[in-house]
Please model this.
Amino acid sequence: MLINRHIQKEGDFMMPLTLADVGKEQIIHRIGGRRHLENLGFVAGGEVTLISSMGGNVIVKVKESRVAISEEMARKIMV
Model:
């Protein structure tokens, strides 16, 4: 599986997790001010995979666990 592991440089493209390809592992570059997300395992430099998105919620794989979060929260995770 390919991993998006390039180092973020000025001018590089980041996108919210909600726009990531399903099934493709991504690296978290920034989290928009949610301590709750860090408690769930979402940390800058960590790996995350979008599993599915439906009905305003997303299911992601983070730290070998599947977690359901709202689409609003997923938009705060930049990969």
